[in-house]
Design a protein that fits this description.
Number of domains: 3
CATH superfamily of the largest domain: Nucleotide-binding domain of ferredoxin-NADP reductase (FNR) module
Helix content: 10-25%
Bound molecules: FE2/S2 (inorganic) cluster
Distance between the termini: 46 Å
Order of helices and strands: EEHEEHEEEEEEEEEEHEHEEHEHEH
Strand content: 25-35%
Length: 339
């Protein structure tokens, strides 16, 4: 038995058989739906269900029950109960097409004891374009893909920068300080992902990052420097210790270049001398706000942080349509669990 799915904004239609997910069937039919991890961990395949309903074999990690109750679903895990009409949640975003190419390692420099700055040079004749917030996939033969967010707003001279935490046993990241020498060539795909700045959304913006989840947010903020149309900006950045705050000075120096910039570093394992905020970013936001309905949110970090923060924000009156998020999925992206 199969069910008919219609994509509302393009009027494309396809059939889903009982053993398939919505995403599987769309891809089989040659219909593009945004996706990344395909196991329910990143949220990229989020759709709004306009008509019909779906169920899951196992409720996916990157969806909250509140989102499901408001009609959102994850296409890579959802199985239709009947015919459906759906809209991709990333509808309206104009994203550059990804290209496969190679990149040369230009620099690997320590930012902290376990975070490095990686600079890659893309071919000079490549017309490289990405939206700040998007990421690149590094294609590893026989292993799969590893995804890392661009930390810079633009590919300056086709050079792109990344912040990468070394993950013990991580196939790619454990080599960063060792064998990944300057001049090495990597196969890459760029750009990927739907996490990016939404210029048509004029609400005050609250950015929430943990760990190297700062990277795509740094790229977005850099793109907004000295922008007269920039809405007010808050940034909550969760790390473990003072030594982890590798971008603190730079972010503080942007105070006069971002509109009403409120930068709040939050440390979960601060030393006794730390005078700033302690705990987790979610706790800091809960302490600072009774309600947040006027804001847009950009969240990047572990699935746990993203899910917890979404729940908190929804409880404080946030609207789901204005929560943009990018979850790390560990075996895919080799990122840390929590700050
Ligand atoms: Fe569906 Fe990642 S592609 S959650």
């Amino acid at each position: 038995m199969s069910h008919r799915i219609v994509v509302s904004d393009t009027n494309e239609a396809f059939d889903v058989s009982s053993h398939e997910t919505i995403l599987d069937a769309a891809l089989r039919a040659g219909i593009k739906l945004p996706h990344e991890c395909t196991f329910g961990g990143c949220g990229t395949c989020r759709i709004k269900v306009q008509e019909g309903s779906a169920h899951y074999d196992e409720f996916p990690m990157a969806l909250t029950e509140e989102e499901a109750a408001q009609g959102y679903a994850l296409a890579c895990q959802a199985r239709p109960d009947g015919d459906m009409v759906i809209t991709p949640a990333s509808k309206g975003l104009e994203l550059p097409d990804p290209v496969r190419t190679h990149a040369e390692v230009r620099a690997v420099e320590p930012l902290t004891a376990d975070i490095s700055r990686l600079v890659l040079q893309l071919p000079e004749d490549l017309d490289c374009e990405y939206r700040p917030g998007q990421h690149m996939n590094i294609l590893l033969k026989g292993v799969g893909e590893r995804s890392f967010s661009m930390a810079s707003a633009y590919p300056f001279g086709n050079e792109v920068e990344f912040h990468i935490r070394r993950v013990p046993g991580g196939y790619f990241t454990q080599d960063l300080s060792g064998s990944l020498a300057t001049g090495s060539l990597l196969d890459v795909e760029i750009p990927r992902g739907t996490f990016c700045y939404h210029p048509d959304d004029y609400r005050p913006m609250m950015f929430v990052a943990t760990g190297t989840g700062l990277a795509p947010i740094r790229a977005i903020l850099e793109s907004l420097l000295d922008d007269e149309d920039c809405p007010p900006v808050s940034l909550y950045w969760g790390m473990r210790t003072e030594a982890d705050l590798y971008a603190r000075e730079e972010l503080e120096s942007w105070a006069d270049r971002l509109y009403e910039f409120n930068f709040v570093p939050v440390l979960s394992q601060a030393s006794d001398v730390w005078r700033g905020r302690r705990g987790h970013v979610q706790q800091a936001i809960a302490q600072d706000f009774d309600e947040v309905s006027e804001f847009s949110f950009y969240l990047c970090g572990s699935p746990g942080m993203v899910t917890d923060t979404k729940r908190l924000l929804l409880g404080l009156g946030a609207e789901l349509d204005y929560i943009y998020s990018d979850s790390f999925t560990f075996h895919h992206r080799e990122h840390p669990v929590e700050a």
